[in-house]
Amino acid sequence: MARKMIRVLLVEDEEIHRVMARAAVKAAAGAEDDDVLDVAENGAAAVRRVREVAPYDLILMDRQMPVMDGHEATRRIRAMGVTTPIVAVSSDGLPADVEAFIGAGADHFTPKPLSKEKLENILAKFGLT
């Protein structure tokens, strides 16, 4: 059975994490092309993408980025009335870090690095499989 086509916004400033996440998202979503994933390199770019591009099914948000961090980007996206699931993806996984992201409006937290298995669980959690 084929998976439904989804659109994911990855908000990540580090190239190596973008490469790994791209591969994991494509594998977890069963996508053969790059149409499933859109990338923003900082929080301000993410806010612009959400405002200007067709709706996303999932947003994967890093915390530490130049220009605007993930907490502020998440707050601004939520302030626009966007209800798309936002999953915080960070190396900072202490309880206080997770609470800060959830408090900013994220729906879920997963530690880096992203993997196919983690993303399959996230997609299932939000009914995107």
From the alpha carbons, calculate the radius of gyration and give it in angstroms: 13 Å
Count of the domains? 1
CATH fold-level topology: Rossmann fold
The total count of strands amounts to 5
Order of helices and strands: EHEHEHEHEH
**DSSP helix count?**
5
CATH architecture annotation name: 3-Layer(aba) Sandwich
| Net shape | globular
Q: What does the largest sheet look like? A: 5 strands, parallel
Mean pLDDT: 89
Helix/strand-derived class? alpha/beta
CATH class: Alpha Beta
User: Residue ranges: pLDDT <50 for 5 or more in a row?
Assistant: none
Strand order of the largest sheet: 2-1-3-4-5
The residue fraction in helices comes out at 40-55%
Q: Distance N terminus to C terminus? A: 10 Å
- Report the CATH superfamily: Response regulator
Pfam families: Response_reg (PF00072)
Domain Response regulatory: 7-127
Protein name: Response regulatory domain-containing protein
Keywords: Phosphoprotein
Q: What does it look like?
A:
- The structure is a single chain.
- With 129 residues, the chain is α/β, with parallel strands linked by helices.
- The chain has one domain (8-124): Response regulator (Rossmann fold, 3-Layer(aba) Sandwich).
- 43% of the residues lie in helices and 16% in strands.
- It is built from five helices and five strands, in the order βαβαβαβαβα.
- It has helices at 15-29, 43-52, 70-79, 95-104, 116-125; strands at residues 8-11, 37-40, 58-61, 86-90, 108-111.
- It has a five-stranded parallel β-sheet with strand order 2-1-3-4-5, sandwiched between helices.
- Helix 1 (15-29) packs across helix 5 (116-125) and helix 2 packs parallel to helix 3 (70-79).
- The longest helix is centred in the first third of the chain and has 15 residues, at 15-29.
- 33% of the residues are buried.
